[in-house]
Amino acid sequence: MVSSMKLSFTLIFACSLFLQTTLAEVICETLPTNLCSFAIASSGKRCVLENYQNDDGKLKYTCKTSEVVVSTMVGRIETDQCVSACGVDRSFVGISSDAFLAPQFAASICSPACHRNCPNIVDLYFNLAAGEGVYLPALCEKQKSRPHRAMMELLSSGGAAPGPVAEISSDLVADAPAPVLF
């Protein structure tokens, strides 16, 4: 009887540890820097990687809570598979729409592996694209059929430094929500 009680207590203890880890609260300031980017705190606010100089003058990194709320995906830390599939990098400080200017980025963010399986990253870049006046689903459609043309239209949308004036395809510009600042 004592043996079965010990087994029961051990089992209950093990289950409680499992529950604590699965229901653990995600707090940006407690995340290691290699998990910070593309994480959403339990409060629903995005985590952002920031850098600072320590007392020795060395560059250090820390994870902070931003003011950007994502109410549909609270307490989420993006998987390494999604980071890879979407062509993003957790080590970048801050997040910028400049990523769209990299030749392979649009192909990665629009890939089925990213677009269908990584709603956190897609939501983030959807909002960044909208802030530049670009509707991400339309850009992805163009990317499938004419990738170079899609990049030219993105560049001419005002999302990059001024260059030659080009006509913007009306299906790339959307009545997008207000830009999300990080």
TrEMBL record:
Q: InterPro entries under this entry?
A: PAR1
Secretion signal: which residues?
1-24
* Keyword line: Signal
Q: Which Pfam families match?
A: PAR1
Q: Does the keyword Cytoplasm apply?
A: no
Please give the name of this protein: PAR1 protein
Q: What is the lineage of its organism?
A: Eukaryota, Viridiplantae, Streptophyta, Embryophyta, Tracheophyta
